């Protein structure tokens, strides 16, 4: 079995292409693929000749045998083919050139630098992999490490250095996958990709995909989405079409665009009808100017600008051609001049290619005058593709202009029109200068403009007809909003096949039973209270009145007497807690206004203890206790205050009390966070929360004593990195990459890894390699858990497991997996090797992230009670109070007791409670002493 450079390159593009090329199959032909092959060969020959001409004849060699390379004194070798053996297969690399750097001294061997030629002006990641493959095979043959390779590319033969050690491990893994792939009698699972348009096997693969109705026919679906659907047993487009379920959108989301549904696209293809979401309107105010641009992507050179002004027979077509890059600015200025001749021009294009073109041209050659109609047209273009996306689902596999315009009946003169074929045509014109080649490109560009105009016109007519009454709509267009929601349980009007069923069904409703049947009953049951009855209001009489002392002299001039001008009062509503219940307590504070007749001064005398708030600490504690610990909604708390205590508290007032409590304890959260950062261990986790339809993220940082929650608008890693910048301990977290940027020792949660491994094993029960890896991991982890269960998290007992971990990784490095899932987990184990078993080297560091997960569960239950109706500031208040609750639980104190005490330091409150229990004799030490004394008495009595 041989793996050549061609097979390796094909595998990088597509595993199916690599298998077919290794099997020796011939493609059905692709003009672009053939052109790339010819260009590569031509460029290689040209660059080889250039390098040989720059090197003395006695210092260069062409295709020498590999065994003489070590002893040779050459500086340049070209056209050499090397072979190496690896895992029962032969690796063959066709080296374009090798630069030999002479030895710099004794003990320093000569350096070999493989060179690869790439004809394009831009190189990609696959080119680096190919250079790394050349270096890998050469190093195996020469038994010498190769650290650098070179890529020579483009018209200016620019040179790029490739760091081989950074790519060597990945190349080895690619080789292992190819080794496992080639012996298979059948090709791997077919997946259509963007590379298919450049592949010689395009026709074969697409035909097979259509025959099997493969999901990869949907061009917009990612590999991750396909894998997720296949794990659910959905393998075809037709199967996917039956999974679409129309949903009623919330009011807060009605002004936002609906997300893209692959299942709806599949439904449109199955029914061969256009499906429309919402009420799209395509407005083009002014003169439509249809724009289509042709260019060479690797050079960033635009050689043809197609402009079509107007619609129908009166439309005018302009094709602006640039022979060289120097003429690019000329056709740009001509394009702006054409726009100036149009009255209120409106640029219409398809996709982002033209958007990038306009931006680059304005940067290179300057844009139109600011404030002009042309400037407005350039700044505010109409992208038909973005208009179609997620609003109009065409019965085509992709939303490309070729597919959409073809659906509307447009036809190109060329059998296979595409942008990459235009590159081949332009190259042919560059070599020959034949007028026919240029005319072919101009015609293709003009047809693209015509197709764009036809598509825009059809879409405008489609939207206008769709806005008409449902009876006048075309049968080929489906309103997604009118589709029946196929839910097993729903509320709403039921449809009856027999008309008599309707009144019978109505007679079974609760309102009918209570308002008609009960009243007519012989027992004359009392009619239920009307829903519009007002809520009961109680007369609140104060339990106590506190008056201010009488003032006899003026505080300003000290003269007497002073005159009373009126009273001021404030009613403090509070709750008093007793061992057997709660009682409402109303205290009325009465102050007096005074005026001095001598100096005219006015002042107020308030009684001692005048409250700044209308609600006392007991009422505040009760509200926060219900909201946070019992997760009762604000409306329910307000109702309970009214029903139980006669306090007419509205939801807004309850929310104000929550905000007041959060303001009091916010400093406590900051102090807890400081303790966490100064400590030696932090657990971290995160989750999301919906605020008015917008997604926010909640972070939790905790240890055995402190827990702090924070909220951010994004999930980026800048926030935890900045927050934990001074932390020097061990961070325990899941595998979210944002935590990797924090400069501290980290322990990854092994429970997360075990769950992921278990879930994938359940999805792939016949993957024996994955099952074997899972058994090995379980056998590695189980003794550690038993040690922890017996001795705790102590290094002196856990360090003996480090030899087993080292053996596990040695065995893992020597294994080759054919299963993609097993290979993925092997890579994951190796990537996280330094962060999976840190707990073996540190006392008190757990191997899981259960502390943070427990805190996240508390927030998840609170999130369910909130229901997404809060605000960003409201969520921040909830998180402050939830932090206090979790800290109270960690310290073993009552959350309600802490709120009632008016303390802000949880640790000080916990210490005071402990001292009180010890003084009262109810602490653990007193109980032990009492039990010991009882045992002594019993023993004496028995003796």
* Unreliably modeled segments: 524-537, 925-943
What does the main sheet amount to?
A: 7 strands, mixed
Bulk shape: globular
- Remind me, CATH topology of the largest domain? Nucleotidyltransferase, domain 5
Could you walk me through the main structural features you see in this protein, from its secondary elements to its overall organization?
The protein is of the alpha/beta class and 943 residues long. It folds into six domains: 2-181, Lambda Exonuclease, Chain A (Alpha-Beta Complex); 287-466, Nucleotidyltransferase, domain 5 (2-Layer Sandwich); 544-614, no CATH class; 619-746 and 850-904, Nucleotidyltransferase, domain 5, CATH 3.30.420; 750-841, no CATH class; 914-943, no CATH class. It is 45% helix and 17% strand. It contains 33 helices and 24 strands. The longest helix has 32 residues, at 435-466. It is globular, with a radius of gyration of 39 Å. The termini are far apart. 28% of the residues are buried. Residues 524-537 and 925-943 have low confidence and may be disordered.
């Amino acid at each position: 079995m041989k793996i050549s450079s061609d097979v390796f390159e094909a595998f990088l593009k597509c595993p199916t292409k690599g298998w077919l090329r290794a099997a020796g199959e011939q493609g059905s032909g692709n003009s672009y693929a053939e052109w790339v092959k010819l260009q590569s060969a031509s460029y290689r020959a040209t660059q080889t000749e250039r390098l040989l001409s720059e090197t003395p004849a006695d210092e260069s060699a062409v295709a020498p045998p590999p065994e003489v390379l070590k002893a040779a004194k050459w500086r340049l070798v070209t056209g050499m083919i090397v072979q190496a053996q690896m895992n029962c297969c032969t690796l063959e690399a066709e080296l374009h050139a090798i630069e030999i750097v002479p030895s710099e001294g004794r003990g320093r061997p000569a350096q070999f630098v493989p060179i690869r030629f790439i004809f394009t002006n831009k190189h990609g990641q696959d080119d680096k992999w190919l250079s790394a493959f050349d270096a890998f095979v050469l190093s195996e043959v020469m038994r010498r490490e190769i650290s650098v390779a070179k890529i020579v590319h483009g018209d200016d033969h620019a040179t790029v250095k490739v760091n081989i050690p950074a790519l060597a491990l990945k190349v080895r893994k690619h080789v292992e996958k190819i080794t496992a792939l080639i012996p298979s009698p059948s090709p791997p699972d077919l997946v259509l990709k963007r590379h298919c348009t450049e592949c010689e096997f395009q026709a074969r693969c697409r035909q097979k995909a259509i025959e099997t109705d493969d999901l990869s026919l949907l061009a917009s679906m990612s590999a991750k989405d396909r894998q997720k659907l296949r794990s659910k047993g959905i393998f075809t487009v037709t199967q996917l079409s039956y999974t679409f379920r129309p949903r009623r959108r919330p009011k807060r989301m009605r002004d936002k665009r609906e997300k893209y549904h692959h299942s709806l696209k599949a439904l449109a293809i199955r029914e061969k009808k256009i499906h429309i979401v919402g009420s799209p309107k395509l407005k083009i105010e002014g003169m439509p100017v249809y724009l289509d641009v042709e260019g060479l992507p690797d050079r960033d050179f635009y050689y043809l600008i197609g402009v079509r002004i107007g619609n129908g027979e009166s439309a005018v077509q302009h094709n602006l051609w640039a022979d060289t890059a120097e003429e690019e600015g000329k056709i740009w200025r001509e394009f702006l001049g054409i726009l100036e001749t149009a009255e209120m021009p409106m640029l219409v294009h398809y996709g982002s290619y033209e958007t990038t073109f306009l931006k680059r041209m304005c940067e290179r050659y300057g844009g139109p005058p600011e404030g002009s109609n042309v400037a407005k047209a350039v700044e505010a273009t109409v992208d038909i593709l973005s208009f179609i996306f997620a609003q109009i689902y065409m019965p085509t596999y992709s939303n490309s202009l070729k597919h959409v315009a073809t659906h509307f009946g447009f036809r190109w003169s060329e059998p296979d029109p595409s942008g990459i074929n235009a590159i081949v045509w332009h190259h042919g014109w560059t070599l020959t200068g034949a007028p026919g080649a240029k005319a072919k490109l101009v015609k293709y560009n003009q047809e693209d403009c015509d197709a764009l105009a036809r598509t825009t016109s059809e879409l405008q007519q489609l939207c206008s007809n769709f806005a008409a009454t449902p009876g006048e709509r075309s049968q080929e267009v489906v309103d997604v909003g009118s589709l029946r929601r196929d839910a097993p349980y729903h509320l709403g009007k039921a449809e009856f096949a027999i008309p008599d069923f309707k009144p019978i069904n109505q007679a079974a409703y609760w309102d009918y039973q209570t308002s008609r049947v009960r009243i007519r009953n012989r027992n004359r049951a009392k009619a239920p209270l009307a829903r519009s009855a007002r809520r009961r209001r109680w007369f609140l009489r104060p339990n106590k009145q506190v008056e201010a002392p009488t003032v006899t002299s003026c505080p300003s001039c000290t003269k007497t007497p002073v005159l009373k001008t009126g009273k001021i009062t404030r009613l403090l509503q509070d709750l008093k807690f007793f061992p057997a219940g709660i009682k409402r307590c109303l205290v009325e504070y009465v102050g007096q206004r005074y005026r001095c007749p001598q100096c005219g001064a006015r002042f107020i005398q308030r009684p001692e203890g005048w409250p700044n708030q209308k609600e006392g600490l007991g009422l505040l504690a009760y509200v926060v206790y219900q909201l946070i610990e019992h997760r009762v909604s604000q409306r329910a708390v307000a109702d309970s205050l009214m029903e139980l205590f006669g306090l007419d508290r509205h939801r807004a007032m309850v929310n104000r009390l929550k905000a007041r409590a959060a303001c009091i304890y916010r400093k406590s959260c900051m102090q807890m966070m400081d303790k966490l950062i100064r400590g030696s261990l932090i657990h971290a986790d995160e989750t999301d929360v919906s605020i008015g339809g917008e997604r926010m993220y909640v972070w939790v940082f905790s240890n055995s004593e402190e827990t702090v929650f924070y909220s951010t608008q994004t999930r980026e890693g800048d926030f935890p990195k900045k927050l934990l910048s001074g932390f020097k301990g061990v961070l325990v977290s899941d595998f979210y990459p944002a935590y990797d940027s924090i400069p501290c020792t980290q322990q990854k949660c092994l429970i997360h890894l075990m769950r992921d491994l278990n879930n994938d094993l359940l999805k792939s029960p016949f993957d024996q390699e994955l099952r074997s890896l899972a058994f090995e991991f379980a056998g590695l982890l189980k003794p550690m858990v038993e040690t922890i269960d017996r001795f705790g998290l102590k290094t002196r007992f856990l360090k003996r497991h480090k030899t087993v971990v080292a053996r596990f990784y040695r065995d893992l490095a020597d294994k080759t997996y054919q299963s993609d899932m097993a290979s993925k987990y092997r890579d994951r184990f190796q990537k996280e090797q330094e962060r999976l078993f840190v707990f073996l080297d540190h006392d008190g560091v757990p191997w899981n992230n259960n502390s943070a997960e427990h805190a996240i569960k508390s927030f998840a239950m609170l999130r369910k009670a909130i229901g997404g109706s809060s605000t960003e500031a409201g969520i921040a208040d909830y998180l402050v109070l939830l932090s206090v609750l979790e800290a109270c639980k960690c310290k073993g104190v009552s959350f309600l007791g802490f709120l009632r005490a008016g303390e802000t330091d949880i640790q000080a409150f916990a210490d005071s409670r402990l001292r009180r229990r010890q003084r009262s004799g109810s602490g653990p030490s007193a109980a032990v002493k009492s039990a010991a004394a009882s045992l002594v008495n019993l023993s004496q009595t028995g003796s």
